[in-house]
Every structure is written in structure tokens, then in C-alpha cells.
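Morning - adenosine-5'-triphosphate inputs below, output right after.
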Amino acid sequence: MSLTRLNIDSFRNILSAKLTLSEGLNLIYGENGSGKTSVLEAIFFLGMGRSFRSHLSQRVINNEQDNLTLFAQLNTQERTTKVGLRRARNGDIDVKINGDNVKRLSTLAETLPIQVITPESFSLLFEGPKSRRQFIDWGAFHSDPHFHQAWAKTRRILKQRNQLLRNQSSYSNILFWDKELVRYAEVVTEIRNQYVDSLNGLLKGIITEFLPQVDLKVSFTRGWDSKTEYLQHLQNQYPRDLASGFTSGGPHKADLRLRVGNLPAQDALSRGQLKLLVCALRIAQGKLLKQQLNKNSIYLVDDLPSELDAKHRQLLLKQLTETGAQIFVTAIDPAAIVDSLSLPPERMFHVQQGKITVIE
Ligand SMILES: Nc1ncnc2c1ncn2[C@@H]1O[C@H](COP(=O)(O)OP(=O)(O)OP(=O)(O)O)[C@@H](O)[C@H]1O
Ligand SMILES: [Mg+2]
């Protein structure tokens, strides 16, 4: 699957762009502030209905305009899909797939599995469990159709349970919700656990290329102690949860442990190595999705050259292109990418003050 056309209107400093894309490697280059990241952000926005840079969606609408519109044509072997999105400053959002209105934004995400690698996203992965959980859930969501609903239900029940805790409900009142919670939490946990297992197999080979000296161990922790059934755990924790007004253990606390030898990865690796580790994780996810569902991901790699030496830029580009996925990379200096490739990029775009020109 790949995007063959992309139209961007009133998105950040890009007033209007109509791009014909390559199904392989697309290089986007230009000066600081020209609009490179904005192009990647527009693709992500179309797939996810939100930005990877800002929680405030109206920030991405061009300052002078009231609406942004994005349109893309997606090609798979079997069919062509047209995806359109319009977002107004007042919050209204309109999503169309092949002309039909779509209600759930997850419908878009299912259509477009997008992987983002930015200088910010890679440090995020080492700051707190939330982004590591999101990393697992990207895969869980794409690899198992039951995940989305089970996770949504889990979160809804947790909210309900926390409300009851804050109202000082008796355990017999909470028990009804706990039984429901356990039902969905088990589905979520099982899918996540299996996903991390499958990912581990693929990751080894990629790590051997990127970080041959690194003895990496990736494991999944489910969010409550590993020896107790969840219902029992909830009951044991009830007095503490009642005091804090919050459910302390559960799938909302799941995490991915990344260790090198006996240390957490962030303490054992350099910044460049951490970037390579995140790239390896994302590449493994893309490869797994391809293996499991024959679905290609789309890679958005912002500022690919930063923090990497020539040898590792070359290795990373090789691994990325080998996934067979469509790739968008940005760089200030195009030579930093071109010189690391054995063949020139299939398409190059030069961005200047929000205007995008294709380089023939
Ligand atoms: N809502 C908006 N309306 C108009 N312009 C905006 C808006 N939001 C951001 N900009 C401007 O868009 C420009 C492009 O930003 P972008 O982050 O895409 O640049 P970039 O090419 O990735 O730069 P860098 O190399 O520094 O990462 C910036 O100058 C920014 O000030
Ligand atoms: Mg940028």
C-alpha cells in the first residue's frame, strides 16, 4: 500500500500543494522553517486525524485560514482508495473514504498504518511508559481486529471504576465492574503479549545489523504483578485504590522493558544508538505487519541524518528500503541522504517557504 497522490491545503505554512508521490523513497529537503516536517505532519494528520507535534489540532490550520483540507489517493494491489479530510478551526472534522462519510477516525488509521520517527518521538520512548504502551498498541491495533474495542472498553470501565472509588463505593458494588474489566483486560493483555513475542523474533536480526555489540532484551510487563490473577489483584488493591481514588494496577500500566545487559536501554546507549534502537523497533513493526497481514506501512522519518554518522545513515536507509514500504524522509541537506544510497531517491521535493517543487 502506498500514497500516490497528496494534496495539502492550508496546513501550517503550506497553502497549496499537489504532489505525485513515489511508492518507494521520497526525499523532502529544504532550509529550517521551510515546511518539511509539515509535509510529514500532513500525511500523519490524514491517517490519524491528529498531529504528532501538537495536541491542539487547530494549530496546524494555516494562520490565515479557517479550514484545512487534505486529500490522498492510496493504492494497493487490489484497489485505489480516496481519503479526504477537512478540519475547521471550530473543531468540526469531516472524513471521507471514497466519497462516503466516515464516523470513526480509527477507520482511517486502519487504512493507513503510519510509522513516525522524529527526533522528539525517539526520546519520548525512553521518558515514560505511555509512549512505549502506544508503541505496543500500534502493533496490537493493526495485528488484531479485536484489540481496538477491547482496549476502548477497558478504558471506559476503568474510568467508571475510578469514579466509584472516589465515591467511596463498597467492594461489592465495584465487583460487578471488576468482572467486566477483567474480561476485556485479559483480551488486551493477551494480544499485547503475543504481539511483543512476535516482534522480538524479527527485532533480533535488525539489531544485529544496527547495533551488533548490543545485548538487547525486550520484554512485556502487563501492568500488575505477574503472579496474581487480575480479579484477585483488584480485590487485594481495593483498600489502597479507595484511598487514592485510582485503580493502581492494570493494562493501563502495561510497559515494554528495553534492557541492555543489566541496564535500562537509555542508561546503556548513546543518543545515536538510541535513535537506531527506535528505528529498529519501528522497522520490526513494519516487517511484522507485512508478514502477518501483507500490509505495508508508511514511514515518516523526520530529519533522518541527525545524530547518525554516514555508516549508520546508510544502514538505516538500507533497512528501511528493504521493508518495501513507502518512505518519506526529510533532511536539510539532500546530499546527507543521496550520498547514503546506492540508487538515487525515487522522488525529491524541495520545500521553500511552504512551496513544494519536485526535482526532476
Ligand atoms: N498554523 C500555521 N500557519 C502558518 N505557518 C505556520 C503554522 N504553524 C507553523 N507555521 C510555520 O511553518 C513553518 C514550517 O515549519 P516546519 O516545522 O514544517 O519547518 P521545517 O522545514 O521542518 O524546519 P526544520 O528544518 O527547522 O525542522 C515554520 O516557519 C512555522 O513557523
Ligand atoms: Mg522540521
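Note: The first helix runs from residue 36 to 48.

O.
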